[in-house]
Amino acid sequence: MVNIVRVSVSRHDPSCDASPRLELYQVPYFDHMDVIDVLRSIQEMFDPTLAFKYSCEEGKCGLCGVLVNGTPELACKRVVAPGEDLTIGPLPNFPLIKDLVVDREMYYTEQRALQDHVARPADGPCKPLPISSLDDLC
């Protein structure tokens, strides 16, 4: 018997849809499956128009962030259990581009602004402080 993962995915293109809708998919489960694998399976087997983003697949870049069952998760790190029911939606508090893709420019702008406030020595990059013993760390 093939294990199935039942997945409800939020679908919405603000340029042409009046409101978001949930579409249900049944995806065959395989060992060590993560949410990125689920989304790729949906795109390859059922609907090539499903929009989502990912890059590093190591949990470093954050590009694959989505809501999974109401909790913000990195899709590349969120492991799926056989027979699990998932509801996947876009991250809240970001403008929606399409389906699971959000506009992160606001986040990047805030990050750049914070970097501008980091104190740097006038003579160049920050230098590590010498540590003479482990006691100096406390």
Rg value: 20 Å
Low-confidence stretches: none
Instruction: Provide a count of the helices.
Output: 2
Separation, N- and C-terminal Cα atoms: 57 Å
Task: Specify the CATH homologous superfamily.
Answer: Beta-grasp domain
What is the CATH top level name? Alpha Beta
Order of helices and strands: EEHEEEEEH
Mean pLDDT: 86
Q: How much helix, percentage-wise, in residues?
A: 10-25%
Total DSSP E strands: 7
- Could you give a short account of the major beta sheet? 5 strands, mixed
CATH fold-level topology: Ubiquitin-like (UB roll)
Principal-axis shape equals globular
- Beta-sheet strand percentage? 15-25%
Widest sheet: strand ordering: 2-1-5-3-4
Structural class computed from helices and strand pairing: alpha+beta
Number of domains: 1
CATH architectural designation: Roll
Structure characterization notes:
The chain is α+β, with helices and mostly antiparallel strands. The protein is globular and about 65 Å long. The chain contains two helices and seven strands, in the order E-E-H-E-E-E-E-E-H. The longest helix has 12 residues, at 105-116. The protein has a single domain, classed as Ubiquitin-like (UB roll) (Roll). A hairpin with a 2-residue loop joins strand 3 and strand 4 (71-74). Helices cover 17% and strands 25% of the residues. The mean pLDDT is 86. The strands form two sheets. The chain has a five-stranded mixed beta sheet with strand order 2-1-5-3-4, with helices on one face. Strands 6-7 form a two-stranded antiparallel ribbon. It starts with a strand and ends in a 22-residue tail after the last helix.
